[in-house]
Structure formats: C-alpha cells, structure tokens
From TrEMBL, chain A:
GO terms for biological process: endoplasmic reticulum to Golgi vesicle-mediated transport; inter-Golgi cisterna vesicle-mediated transport; protein transport; vesicle fusion. It is a single-pass type IV membrane protein. Belongs to the GOSR1 family. Involved in transport from the ER to the Golgi apparatus as well as in intra-Golgi transport. It belongs to a super-family of proteins called t-SNAREs or soluble NSF (N-ethylmaleimide-sensitive factor) attachment protein receptor. It comes from Glycine soja (Wild soybean). Component of several multiprotein Golgi SNARE complexes. The chain crosses the membrane at residues 202-221. Pfam families: V-SNARE_C. It is found in: Golgi apparatus membrane. This is Golgi SNAP receptor complex member 1.
UniProtKB/TrEMBL annotation, chain B:
Residues 151-185 form a coiled coil. One of its GO terms (molecular function) is soluble NSF attachment protein activity. CDD domains: SNAP (cd15832). The lineage of its organism: Eukaryota, Viridiplantae, Streptophyta, Embryophyta, Tracheophyta. Belongs to the SNAP family. SUPFAM superfamilies: TPR-like. Required for vesicular transport between the endoplasmic reticulum and the Golgi apparatus. Pfam families: SNAP. Keywords: Coiled coil, ER-Golgi transport, Membrane, Protein transport, Transport. This is Alpha-soluble NSF attachment protein. It is a peripheral membrane protein. GO terms for biological process: intracellular protein transport; SNARE complex disassembly. It is found in: Membrane. One of its GO terms (cellular component) is vacuolar membrane.
C-alpha cells in the first residue's frame, strides 16, 4: 500500500518532536533530582518553556494527522495515529508531574530558608554556657523522642485511613449488590420481550396457515 | 490485531445496515445495539481507542432510542474509559452525559461516582478550577445519598483546591465541619488535629491575627486535647510571629516542626505565602524606619 508523502512528512515530524521531547525530559528529570536551590534559575524556566513549546507543536502535528486520517486513512495508519496520541498524553502527564515535584521542592527550601538565622545561631552558640548547653541537649533529645512517638501515631492513623477506605469499599460493594437486585426489572423487560417474540411467532404461524389454506382453496376451485 | 480491527468494522457495517433497514420483525435498534457492542469490543481488543469510543457513542444513541437510559449511560461510561487513553476532553464530555442520564433515572450514587471520576481527570490535567467544581458536585451527591465517607473525601479535595485558589474562607469552613463530624466518631477523632491544623493554616493565610486567635480558642473548645498537640503549638507560635512581624521567628518555628513532621507540598505552599507576606511587611517597616 502506498502512503502519500504528506502522511510521511507528518509522521517524520511527529517522530522528530518525540525524540526531542525525550531528550529534553531527561535533562529536566536530572535537573529536578539535582535541584537544591530556592530560586528558579534561568536554565529551569528556559527548559520548561522549551518543553511546553514542543508539546504544543506535537499536539498540532497530531491534530493534522487526525484530520488526515478522518479524510480516509487505512487501518495501519489509524493505528499509528493512536500510538502517537498515547505517546503525547504520556509525555504531557510526566511533564506535569515533574514540574509539580520541582515546584514543591523549591517551595519547601524557600520556606525553611532564612539568612539572618545563621548569624543568630552562631551568636547563641557563643553565648551559651555549659549548663544551658546541657539543658538544650536534653530538650533536643526529648523533642526527638516526641517526634518518634508522633511517627508511631502517624502510622496508626495511616492504618486507620486504610481501614476506613476498606469500609467505604465494602459500602460500595453493598450498593453494587443493591444495584444488582434493582436490575431485576431488567428481567421483567426480558420476559416482556419473550412475550412479544411469542406473539410474533403466533402471528407468523397464523399467516402461514392462512396462506396454505388459501392455496388449497385455489387448487380445489381449479379442479 | 488487524483481524480484530477488520472484524470490528464488519460488525459496525452490519449495525449501520440494520439501522438504515426496515425492521419487520423485532426492533432494529436492539439488533444494532448488539452489533455495535461487539464492534466496540473488537476495537478495544485492537487498541483502537478512538474507534471504540465512537462506536460506544453510537451504542448509547441506540439505547436512547430504546428508552433504556441505564444502558445508554453505561455505554457513555465505556466510551469515556476508551477516550481516557487518547482524548481527555472527549472523555469528560462522555462522563458528563452519563451523569445526566443517571440523574434522570434517579441513580445519584452512580452519578456521584462518575462526577468524582471527572474531577480526577481534571486534577490529572492540573485544571484545579474545574476539578474543584466537580469535586463539589460529587460531594453534594454523596451527601444526598448519605455516603458520608466518600462525601468527606471529596470535601477535603474541595478544601485543598480552594486554598490553592486563595478561597481561604471556604477551605476553613470545610475543614472545620469535617473536624466537627470526626469528633463524633471514635474511629476518626484522632485525625481531628490534622483537619484543625489545615484550617489553622488557612486562617494564617488570611493575615488576620484576631481571627486566628479566635479560631484557636474555638478549636480548643471543640477538642480539649488539641491545645496539647504540636499542631496547636505550631499555629500559636506562627500567630505570635505574625503579630510581632518577625520572619526569623516564623522560620525557626516552621523549621522545628518540619524537622519532626515533614510538611507536605500543600502546607509548604500555603506557609510560603504567609512567609512572603510577612517578609514584605517587614521590609515595608524597614523602609519607613
């Protein structure tokens, strides 16, 4: 089967864009995992806008391919189009996820950053004598123990959440069973369909009998 | 793969022929519906999601002609699940139509479930406004059907997105209501401090120290054990830092809390907003000085 050149050109363009997107996404992924700064630097925003532009272009190419297929493409071609659409969707979802992750990391670092604190901490350390230092260490260890207890409580709460979710799942099952029992009216509609079929059969049988009787009558007259 | 596709197209042609033909015995729509169902199934096996979705839509229109609204709604749901893989907008519109049909026949719990599914699709697309709208509808429907657990899950999503869109009062109202409900349930009361913390953080974003203080007092009345928790301590200390307009103290308090209970991204975002406002105020005062 000969595929027109316009399809070939579109496909080549889509493949090229997908390859570029893969490359840029890898760079972006490395950037996200290595990021420790609080400021969004130029490299990140450049890369983001570049990826966004590529995604828009790929979307346009897919739209053109869709239009081409709608005006009479073959099975193989439409299957290829579906594959490209899936790729576009996967890339878009992953880009959104990475961007959210990067933003969350930046916000977290920015929230905990304070330039004055460093100096103040140093001053505090210089002023503290040994007795206060011991008390501070004790306070820190008590806080750490409290943290551990909070962790255990959090695990218990997570377990509780899972159990609550199971409860809602069983509630869903219960409502599904109710739904099944409420489908019994469907059985009534099946019975009424059977009844209708039966009356239809009766009509057919009557017609056949009438036709036979009529033919016998004609034969009897012609004797 | 290809043979499934050709089989599907064959079934579809038969169905179209049935529709255009004259049905002497039996209903042509019933027969066409059966054939469309087979065709859609073949398309799914061939992974032709667009064709499968389109065929399910034809199946739905057949069922509508037959006055079978439940079957039509189910066909729309199947179409939506097919389109979900390639075309989110089409998927959402199919689910929307399914929801309307389920409402017509009075199946609100199924309507609520698919409204939640629409909201999840929008959430995946990072369209927070639409996700909020549909989560809200879903919560209403679940509430109407007395499915409180699912309603509260949807409401928490509504509160989360409302806060992200800076509709803090709405968020606060929802969290406080959920906390109040949870207090009456022995299983859920240990999660109350989480809800109150979320409500408190939203109060902090409103930049009203008096309202924060009143809210903290109200929370203590709601839950007497709350005043002994670290969450209460965090909120009270942040309120004090805001009152004194001290960014360093704010940062110390948040850092101490974060060192033991790491903050999730939602709390981080909101607290960062508070900190930036506080910093702006401090700079303003420095300029005046």
């Amino acid at each position: 089967m000969e595929v027109p050149s316009s399809w070939d050109a579109l496909r080549k363009q889509a493949r090229k864009l997908e390859a570029q997107l893969d490359e840029q996404m890898n760079s972006y992924r490395k950037l996200v995992s290595n990021n420790v700064s609080t400021k969004a630097d130029a490299a990140e925003s450049d890369l983001e806008s570049w990826i966004e532009r590529l995604l828009k272009q790929l979307q346009q190419v897919n739209t053109q391919m869709q239009a081409w297929v709608s005006s009479g493409g073959s099975e193989m071609v439409s299957h290829t189009l579906t594959r490209h659409q899936e790729i576009l969707q996967d890339l878009t979802q992953e880009f959104y996820r990475l961007r959210s992750s990067l933003k969350a990391k930046q916000e977290h670092a920015s929230l905990l950053e304070d330039f004055k604190e460093f100096d103040r901490t140093r001053l505090d350390l210089e002023q503290v004598d040994s007795e206060q230092h011991a008390l501070l260490k004790e306070r820190t260890s008590i806080s750490r123990n409290t943290g551990h207890m909070d962790n255990v409580i959090s695990q218990a709460q997570a377990t509780l959440g899972a159990l609550v979710f199971q409860r809602s799942t069983f509630g869903g099952i219960n409502s599904k069973l109710g739904n099944v029992s409420s489908r019994l009216p469907t059985v009534n509609s099946i019975l009424s369909a059977i009844k209708r079929k039966k009356s239809m059969d009766t009509i057919i049988l009557s017609l056949v009998a009438a036709v036979c009787t009529f033919l016998i009558f004609i034969y009897w007259l012609s004797k | 793969m290809a043979d499934q596709l050709s089989k599907g197209e064959e079934f579809e042609k038969k169905a179209e022929k049935k529709l255009s033909g004259w049905g002497l015995f039996g209903s042509k729509y019933e027969d066409a519906a059966d054939l469309f169902d087979k065709a859609a199934n073949c398309f799914k096996l061939a992974k032709s999601w667009d064709k499968a979705g389109a065929t399910y839509l034809k199946l739905a229109s057949c069922h509508l002609k037959l006055e079978s609204k439940h079957e039509a709604a189910q066909a729309h749901v199947d179409a939506a699940h097919c389109y979900k893989k390639t075309n989110i907008n089409e998927s959402v519109s199919c689910l929307d139509r399914a929801v309307n049909l389920f409402c017509d026949i009075g199946r609100l719990s199924m309507a609520a479930r698919y409204l939640k599914e629409i909201a999840e699709l929008y959430e995946g697309e990072q369209n927070i406004e639409q996700a909020l709208v549909y989560y809200e509808k879903s919560a209403d429907f679940f509430q109407n059907e007395e499915v409180t657990t699912s309603a509260n899950q949807c409401k928490q999503k509504v509160a989360q997105f409302a806060a992200q869109l800076e509709q803090y009062q709405k968020s606060i109202d929802i969290y406080e209501e959920i906390a109040r409900q949870s207090l009456n349930n022995n299983l859920l009361k240990y999660g109350v401090k989480g809800h109150l913390l979320n409500a408190g953080i939203c109060q902090l974003c409103k930049e009203d120290v008096v309202a924060i203080t009143n809210a903290l007092e109200r929370y203590q009345e709601l839950d007497p054990t709350f005043s002994g928790t670290r969450e209460y301590r965090l909120l009270a200390d942040i309120a004090a830092a805001i009152d004194e307009e001290d960014v360093a103290k704010f940062t110390d308090v948040v850092k101490e809390f974060d060192s033991m209970t790491p903050l999730d991204s939602w709390k981080t975002t909101l607290l960062l907003r508070v900190k930036e406002k506080l910093k702006a105020k401090e700079l303003e005062e420095d300029d005046l000085t």
